[in-house]
Amino acid sequence: MKHIAKAVALAVLALLAPHVVFADYITDAAQALKNAPVYVAPGTEGTDKDTAGKLQERLNKDDNIVLVMLPAAAESSLGADITTIASRLSEELGNRRIIGLAVGNNVVGYAPTLPAGVAADQMRRARSVSNDPVTTLGTFVQNMHIWQRENPQLNPPPLDSPEKGGLSWFVWLGIAVVIVLVVIAVLAVVASQETESSTEKTRFRAPDQVKELLAKIVRERWQIKDSELKDALYQLCVDIERYFSSSSKDKKRDSLFFRDRLNEVAQVLAKYADVQDNPRYYTNWGEELQRGKESITDFSEYVLESIRRGSAEDLFDFRVNTNILQAQRYR
Q: What are φ and ψ of residue 47, in 5° steps?
């Protein structure tokens, strides 16, 4: 009788073991996602200490997307396919999030708040143009951002239903008012930016060939997401205007110098925008962005120092193809 009881106990444990492991993986991920939108389980192949940070850089601040990476052994240990794992994780998260999940080399997109199949389809597309799970998850985020912009009406916020004892009509009314105020605020910001941009196009006092390039750079800087670089570009234009009004001793010669340099700045800016908007086509896109930013900010600092020194000779003798701007190599 004792041997029978022991055999039954072992059989029960064998049946329950996968579910215990399953619960551990899901619980660990769900707990971690309360503090950060990316979770990389220890021991996941093809990852390191920087993987989570790199993936988080692909997410926007207000994203409803979470990314999870589990080791290849997880799927067989759990005794469940990757879609089931994604479904259980979604339940732990209240079925509110868009999930990008990688288990070993397998990936899946899961989002019960979106029309059926949308997240899975965007993940399949990401997988078709990617070589590894990390790149696939990053591309999935980009695909979802594009889909959300193109289908705003199909991307409702994941709110509780009042029928489940959630929000009252008064709260819903408050939310609607807040949304209206936010929309008005966004429209006001966009309008102010357009007004500022149109003002900046004509505000620079410099020789014509330089003035046109300054206006172009000020126009195109609005596509840059890095606020520090955006400010640096505007300050560069202001400083160059100041140089012509206070330091230039030979405007014709200086105009030729700045025409060439600003053309290179425009080239760097165009390349930066392409890397920023299409990172999956660049192996080290983060390094490319940093190099472009440093290239422009270093040149901006050099112009400022030249104005402070009031040395036209130093400015004329400056060589951008050594350490500063390096536009030829950045293209």
A: -125, 165
DSSP output for 261-311: HHHHHHHHHHHHHHHHH-GGG-TTHHHHHHHHHHHHHHHHHHHHHHHHHT-
What residues contact 123, with CB distance under 8 A and at least 6 apart?
A: 100, 107, 108, 109, 136, 140, 143
Residues 241 and 326 in one domain: yes
Which among 81, 137, 135, 71 has a CA at the least distance from the CA of 103? 71
Residue 186 counted as domain residue: no
d(CA 200, CA 230): 13
Q: Is 276 in contact with 288 (CB distance < 8 Å)?
A: no
**Summary count for the chain: helices (H), strands (E):** 13, 4
Digit-coded pLDDT (tens) for 258-315: 888 888 888 888 888 888 999 888 888 888 889 888 888 888 888 888 777 765 444 4
Tell me how far apart the alpha carbons of residues 187 and 194 are, in angstroms, rounded to a whole number. Answer: 10
The number of folded domains in the chain is: 2
Q: What pairs with residue 108 in β-bridges?
A: 101
For residue 166, is it within any domain?
no
Note whether 129 and 210 are same-domain residues: no
Q: In the Cβ-directed half-sphere of 229, how many Cα atoms lie within 13 Å?
A: 22
Q: Let me know if residue 148 belongs to a domain.
A: yes
Tens of pLDDT, residues 196-216: 544 444 457 778 778 888 888
| Residue that is last in its domain, among 154, 169, 185 | 154
Say whether both 98 and 24 belong to one domain. yes
Dist CA 108 CA 113 (whole Å): 16
Q: Is the pTM of this model over 0.85?
A: no
CATH of the domain at 129: 3.10.310
Supply angle C-alpha 241, 243, 248, rounded to 5: 125
Q: Residue 129 sits in which domain range? A: 2-154
Q: Is 252 exposed, middle or buried (0-12, 13-18, 19+ CB in 10 A)?
A: exposed
Strand order in the sheet with 106-110: 38-40, 65-70, 98-103, 106-110
Residue 325: what are its φ and ψ, rounded to 5°?
A: 80, -50
